[in-house]
Amino acid sequence: MPPVPFMLTSTPVAARVESRKQRVALISIGAAIGILAFKLAVGVHTGSLGILAEAAHSGLDLVATLLTWASLRIAARPADANHPFGHGKFESFSAFLETVLLVGTALVIGTTAVREWVGGSAARVHIDFWAFAVMFTSIAVDWRRAAMLRRAAVEFSSDALAADALNFSSDLATSVAVLIGLALVAIGHRWQIAVLARADLVAAVVVALAMIGLAVRLGRRTAGVLLDEAPPTLVRDLREALSGVEGVSALDRLRLRRAGSRYFVDLQLGLEPASTLERIGVVRQEVAERIHRRLPEADVVIETIDAAARRQAPPGVFEQVQAIARRHNLSIHDLSIYDLGAGLDVEFHLELQAAMPLAEAHDRVSQLEAEMRGQIPAIREIVTHIEPELAQVNAANLLDTHSVAAKLKQIARRWPQMIDCHDIQLRRSHGHLSLSCHCSFRDELPVGEVHELVTRLEAQVKRKLPQLSRVTIHPEPGSDNRR
């Protein structure tokens, strides 16, 4: 059974979502530029390494935010030949680059603080109103930005926005650390406490350590996405959601990969061999709908196999022939297979559209037979009886059955296993006569023997009543009292 993909295409709603994500990133860029300029000016004015470290951190924030904005624009592009799964992973790649920048900047700040400590230059720090004003402003701006980005990241399931939100949340802690350091330096200057003059350097080290911690957290998160790590809880939730689908005997494979805010789901379902094409389609649709309830934008590919193939149990010749016909969406009946020692002879009736030209019908039969021969080498001969597929209800008239019933019952008395014949009906439709009846047999007779008797009875009836074009006999046990 071939896999059937359920693809999601771009919609106006999706375009509006991407536009909103990019607008949030642009607002963050504007805030980053303003706070960077303020910190840099005050850091140079005061000579505070803590403020300059925060300025470097803000500069990094600006670069990271620009990366976020650019990655969101790239991620919004549709899939193409080089990126068949879309461009969503550019968001995660942007977050990974931000991790590298965090580590590099933290190392520069940390080594500078150590060098300043050894050189004893902390006394050059000049504390005034602007030093405190810039840090309070930074705290307020970062608090607003982090809240805005956090809401947007959750709403749009964006790795890039989540990375920015995490970054600015950590900025709050480092800004508070620098503010405390500035306060301690000011106290040291006021009361001539030499040890407090180095509090600004300690604040710079705190900023560097916080950036390292942030880089570790952010790197662990983005590495999982870039390496196609599937969240265990999500896999478990999907398996539970699919456990009650009628007609699914097993969920053999469930694979997830994420690109940006979109998941790609690939699964293989084990179905019973008797499943019809229509039922298989219904099962696939229900499975896709259940997945989309959990992951609305998921791209789902479903492959179905029959239970026998899943258990690696080789199907019989009858099952193989029927399965091949189903794959061609063809209906066959009256299937008979004969073992001649040197090979198998296969005969069956095949229904095709009544208006189909014979040449086209013969081509379809030839393709079907060729596939059967290819998959079942033991086949020696195939004889296919082509008949029209009934697609309409024919008008008919009921006729008197008195004379026909007498002949039918006379024929039935030849076989002692047959108890009686009843509910006899004779119809005329478009100039053709058809006969139908119910015949009772002993309860213990096997179905194979009953079918043989019914076949003989039908042949005898057609011989005695050659005007009949169709005879249909329904066998039932003698204990059946529903009539």
Assembly of the depicted chains: single chain
- Give a quick account of the main beta sheet: strands, pairing sense, barrel closure: 4 strands, mixed
Overall geometric form: rod-shaped
Strand content: 15-25%
Task: Give the second-level CATH assignment, the architecture of the largest domain.
Answer: Up-down Bundle
Low-pLDDT runs of 5+ residues are 1-13
What would your notes on this structure say?
It is built from 13 helices and 11 strands. The relative contact order is 0.08. By secondary structure, the protein is an alpha/beta fold. It has a 4-stranded mixed β-sheet. A 4-stranded mixed β-sheet has the order 8-9-10-11, with helices on one face. Strands 5-6-7 form a 3-stranded mixed β-sheet, covered by helices on one side. It has 4 domains: 8-226, Up-down Bundle (Alpha-lytic protease prodomain-like), CATH 1.20.1510.10; 232-310, Cation efflux protein, cytoplasmic domain (Alpha-Beta Plaits, 2-Layer Sandwich); 317-389, Alpha-Beta Plaits (2-Layer Sandwich), CATH 3.30.70.1350; 397-477, Cation efflux protein, cytoplasmic domain (Alpha-Beta Plaits).
Quickly list its features.
alpha/beta; Alpha-lytic protease prodomain-like; Alpha-Beta Plaits; 4 domains; rod-shaped; disordered N terminus
